[in-house]
């Protein structure tokens, strides 16, 4: 028995190791080109569904596909309406691994495991390392499952195993509930479906209990998406809730059909899957495919009614488009000089976000922390798009002057990123200012000074003549020395400050020094621009 238990445990460990490694490898394969491919295919619903099937098959996680699409919606690459058919298709595509795992391909899996393992030491294949890792991981998943099954079979012959099954009796709901919970805990629907099939093949579950467990796995997948999407708002949340609804809608049909078949004796889903194969494993794999095909069919039909309901229930946020590019786009890369102008316009938008940040610090609303976090997320999303756009511009043919402009744009973005981080820290510190009029007065002085300089910075970024750039440079000179004198004055003159309050004064002045230094660097760069 110990040998069988160790074999089953080893198989389980290999299985989860393969699934973990597969998820990591597939993340690396789904970069910007993958997103561009999706954006190009969404214009026709049939093509969008087909792309969803392919994406689900490649990523083996509808949750992962949903969040990739949510990020594209947040950045403006995709609309919610265009993403919904892709999600429906992804649910079907994600069943591919379950089908393959239950075919008799043991010799093929062993050969694949050996060949991909050996490939890791072949230096010439290093550029294919990510793809080979994904293939190796899939092989590990299959190998672990077969090992798990070979360990479970001897255990089912033990007396205690029969006693354990007797506790569950003929309950159908218990396997459904347990499978739902295990799916949420493991964060993988496919993993628990495959384990259910392996356990049933070894005699651990009846066929009907396995059917309900598979339904539970899919319901658990919806709860998993619901938990992971708790921080989403607006359009991305609409997409996530569509995926959450997918499995509930499918289960609302499949579960009643199951009980009608069991208690009314009418041949429905179970009769269908039993007629498709003599193998128990394949029958249950087909059940998972049918569940998702039914769900996809229902949701595709319901999209015209469901989409408006989602939009009303989870409305678009007022600042949701702040994280989306307005000016830069892929076609702009064909005209590099004009593309740099467009990148500059996006950087001006980022500068306005910094000014809005100070408005929150000045007014201190009750939800200041949430507003700051939201603005910071929008800044980061847009800044990421600008960085990627500038990186791709680096591959374009420029003359010497063009490369100089590109270098300034990259450096300008770096300085704006630094200012964003500094102002986020300043806002967090501002929330700690209380109980001392001196600290509050200092904060007010810093905010007003930074606000004036940031407004001048925005004028300088929009300046075509050079006058505002000269003013920007003039007002940022020696600001660091001014802040140092202010800090020394506050710490020396106010004897009523506690140690904690003095620490807050130090942090405030240090952050303002950093902000003025970054602004000074930006002013010097902008002044050097040839007009």
TrEMBL record:
Predominant place of localization: membrane
Keywords noted in UniProt: Cell membrane, Membrane, Transmembrane, Transmembrane helix
GO CC term, one of those recorded: plasma membrane
Coiled coil: none
GO molecular function: sodium:phosphate symporter activity
Statement: the UniProt record of this protein carries the keyword Transferase: no
Compartment annotation: Cell membrane
The organism's place on the tree of life at top rank: Bacteria
Pfam families (UniProt xref): Na_Pi_cotrans
Membrane topology: Multi-pass membrane protein
An annotated GO BP: sodium-dependent phosphate transport
Bilayer-spanning residue ranges: 41-59, 66-90, 96-121, 128-145, 165-185, 192-207, 244-264, 284-306
InterPro entries tied to this protein: Na/Pi_transpt (IPR003841)
Protein name: Na/Pi cotransporter family protein
Organism: Oryzicola mucosus
């Amino acid at each position: 028995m110990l040998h069988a238990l160790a074999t089953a445990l080893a198989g389980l460990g290999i299985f989860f190791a393969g699934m973990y490694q597969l998820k990591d490898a597939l993340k690396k394969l789904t970069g910007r080109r993958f997103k561009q491919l999706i954006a190009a295919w969404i214009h026709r619903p049939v093509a969008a569904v087909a792309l969803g099937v392919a994406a689900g098959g490649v990523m083996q996680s509808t949750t992962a596909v949903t969040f990739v699409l949510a990020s594209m919606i947040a950045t403006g690459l995709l609309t919610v309406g265009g993403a919904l058919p892709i999600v429906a298709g992804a649910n079907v595509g994600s069943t591919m691994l379950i089908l393959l795992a239950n075919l008799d391909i043991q010799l093929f899996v062993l050969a694949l495991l050996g060949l991909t393992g050996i490939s890791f030491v072949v230096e010439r294949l290093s550029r294919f390392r990510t793809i080979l890792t994904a293939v190796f991981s899939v092989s590990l998943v299959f190998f672990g499952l077969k090992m798990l099954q070979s360990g479970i079979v001897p255990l089912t012959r033990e007396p205690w195993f029969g006693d354990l099954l007797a506790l569950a009796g003929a309950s159908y709901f218990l396997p459904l509930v347990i499978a739902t919970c295990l799916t949420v805990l493991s964060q993988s629907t496919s993993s628990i479906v495959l384990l259910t099939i392996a356990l049933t093949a070894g005699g651990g579950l009846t066929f009907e209990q396995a059917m309900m467990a598979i339904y539970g796995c899919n319901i658990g997948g919806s709860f998993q998406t619901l938990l992971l999407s708790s921080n989403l708002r607006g359009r991305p949340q609409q997409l996530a809730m569509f995926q959450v609804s997918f499995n509930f809608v499918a289960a609302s049909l499949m579960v009643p059909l199951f009980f009608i078949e069991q208690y009314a004796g009418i041949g429905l889903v179970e009769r269908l899957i039993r007629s498709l194969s003599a193998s128990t494993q394949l029958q249950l794999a087909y059940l998972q495919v049918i569940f998702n095909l039914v769900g996809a069919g229902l949701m595709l039909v319901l999209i015209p009614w469901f989409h408006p309901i989602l939009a009303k229930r989870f409305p678009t946020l007022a600042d949701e488009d702040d994280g989306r590019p307005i000016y830069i786009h892929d076609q702009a890369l064909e005209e590099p000089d004009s593309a740099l102008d467009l990148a500059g316009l996006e950087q001006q938008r980022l500068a306005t976000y910094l000014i809005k940040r100070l408005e929150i610090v000045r007014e201190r609303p009750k939800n200041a922390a949430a507003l700051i976090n939201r603005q910071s997320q929008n800044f980061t999303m847009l800044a990421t798009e600008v960085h990627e756009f500038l990186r791709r511009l680096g591959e374009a043919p420029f003359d010497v002057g063009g490369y100089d402009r590109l270098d300034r744009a990259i450096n300008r973005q770096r300085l704006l990123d630094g200012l964003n981080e500094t102002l986020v820290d300043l806002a967090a510190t501002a929330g700690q200012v209380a109980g001392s009029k001196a600290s509050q007065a200092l904060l007010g002085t810093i905010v007003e000074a930074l606000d004036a300089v940031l407004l001048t910075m925005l004028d300088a970024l929009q300046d075509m003549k050079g006058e505002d750039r000269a003013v920007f440079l003039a007002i940022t000179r020696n600001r660091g020395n001014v802040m140092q004198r202010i800090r020394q004055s506050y710490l020396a003159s106010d004897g009523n400050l506690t140690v904690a309050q003095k620490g807050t004064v130090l942090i405030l002045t240090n952050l303002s020094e950093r902000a003025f230094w970054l602004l000074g660097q930006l002013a010097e760069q902008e002044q050097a621009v040839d007009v």
